[in-house]
């Protein structure tokens, strides 16, 4: 029992320290880079091209053949809805500054991409 409690304490201490290390990550000076932007756009397109047909084929295999088109449209509609939600609210929750709880979840100061310009990166 002594070894088990020591293991629990060591895992608890490790996770506690990792939590405090992750609170204030070191940020490099951010500059707008054409290569970084191109890579983000390329990887986004690759993920969408991978996810949409993959989900449609997976869920299409679970239904009857007459319902495959409906499942494909459901997957496409969900991807569109997630993209719109990212532009409207989720970007702001992920990248806005603030105090209190906003340091973990963000605020709505950049909702609808308000104030997001190429100079403000």
Blueprint of the fold:
Blueprint: H1 2-23, H2 34-60, H3 68-95, H4 102-105
Helix pairs in contact: 2-3
Count the domains: 1
- Strand elements, count: 0
Query: What gyration radius follows from the Cα positions, in whole Å?
Result: 21 Å
Structural classification: mainly alpha
Helix content: 55-70%
Number of contiguous helices:
4
Describe this protein's structure.
With 121 residues, the protein is mainly α. It has one domain (29-113). Helices cover 67% and strands 0% of the residues. It has 4 helices and no strands. It has helices at residues 2-23, 34-60, 68-95, 102-105. α2 runs antiparallel to α3 (68-95). The longest helix has 28 residues, at 68-95. It is extended. The model has no long low-confidence stretch (mean pLDDT 82).
Concise structural overview:
The chain is mainly alpha-helical and about 120 residues long. Helix content is about 65%, strand content about 0%. It has helices at about 1-25, 35-60, 70-95, 100-105.
